Amino acid sequence: MYPYYYRVNNWTQVLGLLNQSLYAEEMVCAMSSELYHIPATKDLKGNSEMHDHLIPASYHRVSAAGSAQRLANGEQRKSIIDTLVTCIKNAENQDKKVRDGLKVMEQNAAPEFKPFMKLIMKWQQQAESTLNQAKVTLQSMGISSANESGQQSEEVNFY
């Protein structure tokens, strides 16, 4: 099948990066959800819309991390790699909309909540950065997606 991917085993590195991304995502989820329980921010413009994308972004991160854990544990099916790569891409796509929602929230937050919003945005940036590092690590293993123009690269593509 694709024995190269199984011999060059950086799955634990990918898993570690995805776990870091998950941790940052936990902070984004916890902090933005807290806003629903503060009287001054319970109806903050953009929060509900942002959560419409944060929830699937979280799901895809969890699924990617679970796939990486399975590979790190020694499972060796291409379908697991397919799941991992697709979930990273899906999380990236949702992250763009989460970021947009956080900007709307920050713009509409009262001055005393702006530092809190900036902190949530920093956690989101960390979630995205470590997710991207996991993707780059996969690329260094010969696993990549279609290039910007939608054309397949010379490497094996799983998206």
Draw up the topology in text.
Layout lengths: L2 H5 L3 H24 L12 H26 L5 H31 L5 H27 L2 E2 L11 E2 L2
Parallel strand pairs: 1-2
Helix pairs in contact: 2-3, 2-5, 3-4, 4-5
Describe the structure.
This protein is mainly alpha-helical and 159 residues long. It has a single domain (3-137), classed as Four Helix Bundle (Hemerythrin (Met), subunit A). It contains five helices and two strands, in the order αααααββ. The chain has helices at 3-7, 11-34, 47-72, 78-108, 114-140, and strands at 143-144, 156-157. Strands 1-2 form a two-stranded parallel sheet. α2 (11-34) runs antiparallel to α3 (47-72). It is elongated, with a radius of gyration of 17 Å. The two termini are 17 Å apart.
List keywords for this structure.
Four Helix Bundle (Hemerythrin (Met), subunit A), two-stranded parallel sheet, 71% helix, 2 strands, mainly alpha, disordered C terminus, elongated, 159 residues
Distance linking N and C termini: 17 Å
Structural class: mainly alpha
Shape: elongated
Q: Which CATH class applies here?
A: Mainly Alpha
Write a short abstract of this structure.
It contains five helices and two strands. The protein has 159 residues and is mainly α.
